[in-house]
């Protein structure tokens, strides 16, 4: 690898030629950059012109830009080797109708994003358009959005997944209503900024252009665009286009890196169509991870399973695509009518669509009024638009300009993960009034009296899921979650979350319960459970004269919430491992014998033990024992029950109590008997038993494999050697 890691491969060429010992026939050349440059120079010197080659890394993928001149830099290399990977960033346009967004994108890229006949006829953008621009090792993907007020929902769909924005304002009109609304949408989507194009500069004089620039600066002063460069451009004359292109490329460094290795492939669907001979195709901006041809994906929230038959990025077929690219996926085994804008494509996992989303909600200062529980709205996310109702507010009513945590009830399921951004609009009158950052898409409905608890949810940053993981484990508490559930809830690849859990386990910040699958709990929460369990045992046992223990589930129910009781066995085993308690026949006693009993209880236990031992094969009933010892029958019953649980007394036939040592003596005596079989009468005579006790004892001996019944007789199985 060290010798070849900087070598390139020619994937495609218009001719096949050998020069300077380098075979430039398609697919056969592997050369270092200096060798490749020399070979191309030789070809040009030999008289070949207008050559086109496509280069790629031989170790990973076939994706790269074309090279038309020998000295043009080779812009791409594989992300899995030491060569520089092409950087991708998605720009979304924003601005009022007829301010020149589409014309500007065409001037920058050469691509006309208005592809529909109706768009051509009416001269306005109706649906989303797409283009790209490659400069050196940068690839800029443009999403061109409609500016009409009735198509803001389409604009929001296009804004999903963009990295930066290109705000377009016409110099002859200045700031207009959709300029402001689009700017609010971009801010609510968490876009960190971008650039501003003052278009149609060729239609106004210098003074008007300056006034328009001042108006823009005033509008942007309290936004992420406050320091954004404003470039005067004309799509007609070409003025400023080169400068704007240079600025857009330079801003790639400010874009937040896409999440590749720790996330599954995820893409929001914004277009669906069918191609003859190809089949069903979906397009969208890839949000997370990587996808290779042939891999299986799911289409959510419907849970449709499909296979990626072919992949394209702006018309160029690829073997693999990654986050940040505009991707077309040819899906196998899926019909066109099963797909729609607003669905999401993810690599297979245990993903859970939701109808209840918890988010940090912001009500815009420009909102027409307050917001309260029960209000109806539309939630826009990843191209989907679904009606919803405000279920719960931590602060109510919410005033314009304020922020709080809220829960929204959706009428249809939507797939959301922590960190996703949503925009909220009212259906009538139509307006954008707020937005939010998803905190949790699986949190149960909070009761109104507990609304303040919503503010306790951990904050979200775009790439901070490893830091969030422990706080989510804390939120599960003793109800504990397994790795697969945590991965699905956070939207993380299973292998990555297991690695992160391993680090938390090795640092003793969390522990794994002995359940299948393992459940994870913060160590300090288990420490707290241990402390409370000790205190509960002490209190419960000190309040009784004597105890045979506490029913295990009843004991645990006083310590853990009902939602954690499904882990009762594992939690009790953890307390047992920590030597807090023992479990005897389903009852909890402190670890270490009967030291938990009161002084009176311990004395009574000793007396009852001695009474039954001395009674031998004529044991008393608990009531008779209470009368003999001048003790309360209910207390004696409890002590007898405890002695049975600890194995010192044995209950025969569900009603007779006899000391275990008496039974052991009988077993030992049988082992020394000089006959191999015996009848019931012989057994009664040998041990001085009545029939009502002889039969239960014989059945116990059978269960202990000391004897075995053969007809009306018993055969002795154990010998004296077995008992020695």
Fold and architecture overview:
This protein is 30% helix and 28% strand. It is an alpha+beta fold and 724 residues long. The strands form 10 sheets. It has a 6-stranded mixed sheet with strand order 8-9-7-10-11-12, sandwiched between helices. The protein has a 6-stranded antiparallel β-barrel with strand order 13-15-21-18-17-22. The protein is elongated, with a radius of gyration of 38 Å.
| Strands ordered across the widest β-sheet | 8-9-7-10-11-12
Shape: elongated
Unreliable residue stretches: 1-33, 49-84, 720-724
Proportion of beta-strand residues:
25-35%
Q: Biggest β-sheet: count, sense, barrel?
A: 6 strands, mixed
SS class: alpha+beta
Mean pLDDT: 82
Strand segment count: 38
Q: How would you name the oligomeric state of the polypeptide chains in this document? A: single chain
Number of discrete helical segments: 20
Question: Roughly how many Å is the radius of gyration?
Answer: 38 Å
């Amino acid at each position: 690898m060290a010798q070849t890691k900087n070598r390139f491969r020619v994937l495609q060429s218009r001719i096949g030629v050998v020069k300077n010992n380098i075979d430039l026939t398609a697919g056969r050349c592997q050369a270092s950059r200096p060798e490749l440059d020399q070979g191309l120079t030789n070809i040009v010197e030999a008289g070949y012109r207008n050559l086109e080659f496509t280069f790629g890394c031989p170790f990973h993928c076939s994706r790269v830009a074309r090279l038309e001149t020998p000295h043009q830099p080779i812009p791409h290399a594989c992300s899995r080797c030491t060569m520089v990977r092409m950087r991708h960033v998605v720009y979304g346009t924003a601005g009022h109708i007829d301010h020149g967004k589409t014309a500007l994108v065409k001037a920058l890229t050469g691509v006309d994003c208005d592809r529909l006949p109706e768009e051509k006829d009416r001269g306005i953008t109706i649906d989303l358009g797409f283009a790209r621009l490659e400069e050196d090792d940068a690839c800029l993907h443009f999403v061109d959005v409609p500016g009409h007020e009735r198509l803001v929902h389409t604009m929001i769909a296009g804004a999903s997944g963009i990295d930066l924005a290109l705000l377009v304002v016409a110099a002859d009109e200045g700031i207009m209503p959709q300029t402001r609304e689009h700017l609010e949408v971009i801010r609510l989507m968490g876009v960190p900024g971008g650039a501003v194009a003052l278009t149609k500069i060729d239609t106004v004089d210098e003074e008007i252009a300056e006034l328009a620039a001042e108006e823009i600066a005033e509008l942007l002063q309290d936004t992420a665009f406050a320091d954004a460069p404003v470039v005067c451009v004309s799509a007609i004359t070409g003025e400023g286009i080169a400068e704007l292109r240079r600025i857009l490329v330079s801003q790639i460094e400010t874009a937040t890196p896409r999440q590749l290795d720790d996330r599954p492939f995820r893409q929001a669907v914004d277009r669906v169509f069918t191609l003859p001979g190809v089949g069903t195709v979906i397009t969208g901006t890839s949000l997370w991870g990587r996808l290779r041809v042939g891999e299986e994906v799911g289409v959510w929230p419907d849970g449709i399973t499909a296979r990626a038959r072919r992949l394209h990025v702006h018309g160029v077929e690829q073997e693999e695509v990654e986050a940040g690219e505009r991707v077309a996926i040819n899906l196998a085994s899926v019909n066109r009518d099963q797909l729609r804008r607003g669905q999401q494509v993810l690599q297979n996992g245990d993903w859970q669509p939701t109808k209840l989303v918890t988010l940090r909600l912001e009500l815009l200062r420009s909102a027409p009024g307050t917001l309260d529980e029960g209000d109806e709205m539309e939630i826009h996310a990843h191209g989907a638009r679904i009606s919803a109702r405000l279920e719960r507010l931590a602060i109510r009513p919410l005033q314009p300009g304020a922020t709080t945590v809220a829960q929204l009830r959706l009428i249809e399921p939507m797939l959301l993960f922590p960190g996703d951004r949503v925009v909220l609009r009212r259906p009538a009158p139509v307006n954008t009034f707020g937005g939010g950052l998803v905190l949790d898409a699986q949190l149960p409905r909070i009761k109104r009296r507990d609304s303040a608890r919503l503010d306790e949810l951990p904050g979200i940053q775009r790439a901070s899921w490893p830091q969030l993981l422990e706080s989510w484990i804390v939120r599960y508490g003793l109800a504990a979650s397994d790795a697969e559930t945590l991965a699905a809830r956070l939207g993380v690849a299973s292998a990555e979350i297991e690695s992160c859990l391993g680090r938390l386990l090795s640092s003793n910040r969390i522990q794994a319960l002995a359940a299948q699958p393992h459940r994870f709990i913060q160590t300090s929460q288990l420490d707290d459970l241990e402390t409370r369990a000790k205190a509960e045992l002490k209190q419960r046992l000190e309040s009784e004269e004597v105890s045979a223990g506490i029913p295990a589930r009843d004991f645990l129910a006083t310590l853990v919430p009902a939602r954690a009781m499904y882990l009762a066995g594992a939690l009790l085993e953890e307390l047992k491992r920590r030597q807090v308690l023992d479990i005897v026949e389903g009852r909890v006693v402190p670890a270490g014998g009967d030291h938990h009993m009161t002084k009176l209880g311990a004395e009574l236990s000793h007396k009852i033990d001695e009474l039954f031992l001395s009674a031998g094969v004529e044991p008393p009933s608990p009531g008779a024992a209470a009368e003999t010892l001048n003790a309360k029958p209910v207390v004696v019953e409890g002590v007898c029950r405890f002695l049975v649980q600890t194995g010192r007394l044995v209950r025969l036939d569900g009603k007779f109590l006899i000391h275990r040592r008496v039974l052991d003596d009988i077993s030992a005596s049988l082992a020394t008997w000089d006959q191999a079989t015996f009848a019931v009468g012989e057994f009664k005579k040998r041990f001085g038993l009545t029939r009502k006790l002889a039969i239960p004892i014989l059945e116990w001996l059978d269960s202990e494999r000391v004897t075995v019944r053969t007809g009306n007789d018993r055969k002795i199985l154990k010998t004296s050697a077995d008992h020695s």
